[in-house]
Write a structure and sequence with these properties.
This protein is of the alpha/beta class and 135 residues long. 46% of the residues lie in helices and 14% in strands. It is built from seven helices and five strands. α1 packs across α3 and α1 packs across α4.
């Protein structure tokens, strides 16, 4: 049986790294009860590193080195990412969000840890699946 997987968007990464973030405690609470694999993308990591105070970047990247984390490469994702950016241009969708929709399609994971509840309740995978937004 496969281990459960949880997508972690840039907002979730920011909350993990920054104890002063308003989502820090709720995100840690979810993670304390989740024992599967944690999945993110390099665009989400880049966005999180841009948002958190610079002195927290190394800590954030070190956390991603834990065996339960997978940071997905984006090889071959360009056409789908462009399609998503066009489809959700009215939000507007950013690259990190598009990469998380792509990651859901690529892995089959549908639960997402994010501070961006409004957008991820609207986004759908190519097959029409809805995200289960946490916390």
């Amino acid at each position: 049986m496969a281990r459960p997987e949880l997508l972690v968007d840039s907002g979730g990464l920011v909350a993990i790294a920054n104890a002063k973030d308003r989502f820090h405690r709720p995100v840690l609470s979810v993670l304390s009860e989740f024992f599967g694999d944690l999945i993110t993308t390099w665009p989400a990591v880049t966005e999180a590193c841009h948002i958190v105070p610079a002195h927290l970047n190394a800590t954030l990247v070190e956390k991603l080195c834990h065996p339960r984390w997978r940071v997905l490469g984006m090889d071959g994702s360009g056409p789908r990412i462009a399609e998503l950016l066009r489809k959700y241009a009215d939000r507007p969708m950013d690259l990190a969000d598009a990469s998380m929709v792509w990651a859901a399609e690529h892995t089959g994971a549908i639960q997402i840890l994010t501070a961006d509840q409004a957008d991820f309740e609207i986004y759908r995978t190519k097959t029409g699946k809805r995200f289960e937004v946490l916390p």
